[in-house]
């Protein structure tokens, strides 16, 4: 995808599908991709946008890249690495592995790291190691800590600003239920990290129906009672941005966002019970609020 937005050919719909996560397979994301490609076409190389993955729930694509690289050098003693990587070039293969096998594979690929001189190859191998750690002992805090390490690596190996697209629970800078990605970023980068939450009053959206194992369109008719969602829905604007760092200019707003309040916390799945209670100013630096939502248009 990164090559595509920088002028390479290819089918962006197919690339979105191969990312491996259904929420990206939408017409809205495709429009964003095409905008990034158009923007880059008028920029010098140093000013072009990049498209980079940070999550650790899938390593199929990166395992294939590393496998093909090691396979292309027959003179090197890469057979043990190729044997291990073969388990990760297909998600189905990895699903059949046991904990002991993951632990053995981790040690083998850890020894490969020192032999990879190119930064992107080192990070490719590191991504697979992160995936294996998740399979050995998954926790939400570990997932977010590993995403933080990926962003930190990116910040140290590139120039410019980084825009992170993720769910509110990852973006927020608090650690009410677990140590979030935003919590790690805020503690390292302080005011350089700006956390933007998102909420909406009513409308439709897509989410994964766990019971029936499929994507489903859900509809919410009105904001939850006694929540920040209900309060923000009372504003005159249909869509607006609220900078919580400037709330001190408005005493009543400041009192509200520095008190514990309930707010909706829908993820890739949905339940009416998905709510959080915390101080909004401790969780976010700003909030984008939309009164009426409509579901994304799925490509597949």
What would a concise description of this structure say?
This protein is of the alpha+beta class and 300 residues long. The chain contains 14 helices and six strands.
Summarize the structure in words.
The protein is an alpha+beta fold and 300 residues long. It contains 14 helices and six strands. The protein has a four-stranded mixed β-sheet. Strands 4-5 form a two-stranded antiparallel ribbon. Helix 4 packs across helix 8 (119-136), helix 8 (119-136) packs antiparallel against helix 9 and helix 9 crosses helix 11 (181-189). The two termini are 18 Å apart.
Low-confidence stretches: none
The total strand number stands at 6
The SSE order reads: HHHHHHHHHHHEEHEHEEHE
Strands of the largest sheet, in order across it?
A: 2-1-6-3
- Name the average pLDDT: 94
Task: Provide the structure class.
Answer: alpha+beta
Quickly count the helices.
Answer: 14
Largest sheet: 4 strands, mixed
Strand percentage lies at: 5-15%
- Give the C-alpha Rg: 21 Å
Q: In percent, how helical is the residue content? A: 40-55%
Gross geometry: globular
| CA distance, first residue to last residue | 18 Å
Features:
300 residues, alpha+beta, four-stranded mixed β-sheet, two-stranded antiparallel ribbon, 15% strand, globular
How is this fold's topology laid out?
Layout: H1 2-5, H2 12-18, H3 27-40, H4 60-71, H5 79-85, H6 91-95, H7 99-112, H8 119-136, H9 140-156, H10 168-171, H11 181-189, E1 196-209, E2 214-220, H12 228-232, E3 239-243, H13 251-257, E4 260-264, E5 275-279, H14 280-283, E6 286-293
Parallel strand pairs: 1-6
Antiparallel strand pairs: 1-2, 3-6, 4-5
Helix pairs in contact: 4-8, 7-8, 8-9, 9-11
């Amino acid at each position: 995808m990164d090559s595509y937005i920088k002028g390479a050919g290819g089918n962006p719909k197919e690339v979105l599908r191969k990312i491996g996560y259904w929420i990206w397979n939408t017409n809205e994301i495709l429009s964003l991709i095409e905008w990034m490609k158009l923007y880059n076409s008028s920029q010098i190389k140093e000013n072009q946008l990049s498209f980079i993955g940070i999550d650790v729930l899938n390593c199929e694509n990166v395992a294939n890249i590393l496998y093909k690289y090691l396979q292309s050098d027959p003179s090197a003693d890469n057979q043990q690495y190729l044997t291990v990587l073969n388990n990760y070039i297909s998600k189905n293969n990895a699903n059949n592995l046991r904990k002991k096998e993951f632990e053995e594979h981790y040690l083998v690929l850890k020894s490969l790291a020192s032999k990879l001189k190119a930064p992107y190859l080192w990070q490719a191998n590191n991504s697979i190691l992160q995936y294996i750690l998740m399979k050995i002992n998954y926790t939400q805090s570990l997932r977010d800590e590993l995403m933080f390490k990926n962003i930190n690596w990116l910040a140290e190996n590139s120039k410019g600003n980084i825009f992170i697209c993720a769910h509110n629970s990852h973006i927020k800078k608090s650690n009410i239920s677990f140590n979030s990605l935003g919590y790690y970023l805020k503690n390292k980068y302080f005011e350089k990290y700006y956390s933007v939450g998102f909420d909406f009053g009513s409308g439709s959206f897509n989410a994964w129906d766990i019971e029936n194992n499929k994507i489903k369109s859900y509809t919410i008719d009105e904001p939850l009672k006694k929540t920040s969602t209900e309060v923000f829905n009372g504003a005159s604007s249909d869509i607006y941005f609220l900078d919580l760092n400037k709330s001190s200019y408005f005493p009543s707003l400041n009192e509200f966002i520095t008190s514990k309040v309930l707010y909706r916390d829908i993820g890739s799945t949905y339940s009416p019970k998905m709510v959080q209670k915390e101080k909004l100013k401790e969780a976010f630096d700003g909030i984008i609020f939309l009164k009426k939502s409509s579901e994304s248009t799925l490509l597949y």
